[in-house]
Amino acid sequence: MRYIFDRTGLSFNSLVNEMRITKTTNYLLYTELTLEELAPILGYVDAAHISKDVPCKNGREDCKLQTGAWKGFARRAYRGKQAGLQK
Question: FRET label pair with 48: which of 25, 42, 78, 80, CA 20 to 30 Å apart?
Fold first, then answer.
């Protein structure tokens, strides 16, 4: 464990969480998978846990993914819904 801290400056758990957050962000940006589909792939218990761990990347540190808003929607479908293009 000390080796990881010496090399990265992060504890083992922090490093694992950073990797999961990066993978989650990439999946959301580049696939059509929903949070419910991503949770087991990335080792989360459910979609709610993803929203607690993954901060939004829009400049606000306090922003978290809104699980209820994403629930059941792939990224494009959700964005279309937000833009009023889909009911």
Answer: 80
Which tokens is 83 given?
A: 């833009």
Q: 53: which 2 tokens? A: 């761990």
Q: Which residue has the higher pLDDT, 52 or 82?
A: 52
Whole-prediction pTM value?
Answer: 0.59
- Say which residue the tokens 């937000």 belong to: 82
What is the distance between the alpha carbons of residues 52 and 86, in angstroms, rounded to a whole number? 27
Residue 24 has pLDDT above 50, yes or no: yes
- State both tokens at 24: 């989650």
| Neighbouring C-beta atoms of residue 76, cutoff 10 Å | 11
User: Which residues is 64 bridged to in the sheet?
Assistant: 55
The answer to whether 39 touches 49, Cβ cutoff 8 Å, is yes
Strand-pair partners of 55: 64
Q: Look up residue 16 and give its two tokens.
A: 């694992």
**Letter for the amino acid at 18?**
E
Q: Which residue has the tokens 């993914």?
A: 65
